[in-house]
Automatic annotation (TrEMBL):
SUPFAM superfamilies: Bet v1-like
InterPro entries to which the protein is assigned, alphabetical: ASHA1/2-like_C (IPR013538), START-like_dom_sf (IPR023393)
UniProt name for this protein: SRPBCC family protein
CDD domains attached to this UniProt entry: SRPBCC_CalC_Aha1-like_6 (cd08899)
Positions with biased composition (Low complexity): 196-205
Family membership: Belongs to the AHA1 family.
Superkingdom classification of source: Bacteria
One Pfam family of this chain: AHSA1
Every Activator of Hsp90 ATPase homologue 1/2-like C-terminal domain range: 35-150
Region described as Disordered: spans on this chain: 179-213
Amino acid sequence: MIDATEQINAVRRQLGRRVLEAGEARVMTISQTYDAPLEDLWDACTNAERIPRWFMPISGDLRLDGRYQLKGNAGGTIERCDPPKGFAATWEFGGEVSWIEVRLTPVGDDRTRFELEHVAHVDQERWDQFGPGAVGVGWDLALLGLASYLAADGSGVTPEEGEAWSVSEQGRQFVTASSERWGEASVADGTDAEAARGAAERTTAFYTGAPPA
């Protein structure tokens, strides 16, 4: 794994809102610029053989209107595809449907900005309890996996290595820092600072198993 503090600082996190047919939804955006050309980053994000090396095992038909399934996690339908610039898909998990969109933008000749937008209807009680970190920490871990994969020799991180790291002291520190940064993004979006801090602490406790302060 790459340096956790460096990775936390390399990521930008932002929150917003959007009105959909079913009502107002929360919009979470996370982004990072990688030392990889556009075509290579696109392939890393869409090739079924490469995705498990930094994210999760995936199955299905990875094409427009195809269905995908991440092992033990979300599945959905690929709704838009514009290679190598990005794609959009539903994110179906736990009986709920939200939406993700990935956008890739070249930065110079050999760097690419990765931006993921996750749009979801979230009830106020759940938002008050955990805030954006409930989903945001997971995406932070995904971007960490992608950064580690691109910085290595292409072999990626095995599930066993990832699991061991997640329960290590560095892994717990990474989750804590991610929760705190999402709490800061929540405050910037208008949430009361004390409420955002409490939600961040509960999110950290959820991911690490440690009781909140």
